[in-house]
Specification:
By secondary structure, this protein is an all-alpha fold. Helix content is 40%, strand content 0%. The chain contains five helices and no strands. It starts with a helix and ends in a 5-residue tail after the last helix.
Length: 128
């Protein structure tokens, strides 16, 4: 967070420290990082509380998402963009992510649905 593509390239060049090595980011193949979203906003606190209600015993903490997500398209529309998938997986599930037979259990889908119902109701409450 806080580093630009240019600053990162500058640092890599300094670390390599070899004039024979030259590189540039691939044109149209990169995006600057999305802004860091607040962990003290009403939106985040509601999200955190809903996670805790739906998934008892879990720790809620910020996480750095390394992949290019759709957040880059929403950063200009909102001061906070949260990337969160409300489902629990086991080690078997993790081995199938973006691979053959990727899926979630019926139970995980049910909890995900319950989570979104609770979150939408909380965000639509009159007292926010």
């Amino acid at each position: 967070p806080g580093d630009s593509i240019a600053k990162t390239c500058e640092r890599v060049r300094k670390i390599i420290n070899d004039d024979r090595v030259d590189f540039e980011p691939v044109e149209n193949g990169y995006w600057e990082a999305s802004p860091v979203s607040s962990t003290t906003s009403v939106a985040f606190l509601t999200l955190r509380n809903t996670i805790r209600q739906t998934f008892e015993g879990v720790v809620v903490a910020p996480f750095l998402v390394l992949g290019a997500t759709d957040a880059r398209y929403y950063a200009g529309l909102s001061d906070s963009v949260y990337r969160f998938s409300p489902y629990q997986v086991d080690s078997e599930d993790l081995g199938r992510v973006h691979g053959i037979n990727e899926r979630l259990s019926v139970e995980a889908m049910g909890k995900m649905t319950a989570f979104f119902v609770e979150l939408m109701q909380a965000w639509c409450a009159d007292d926010l």
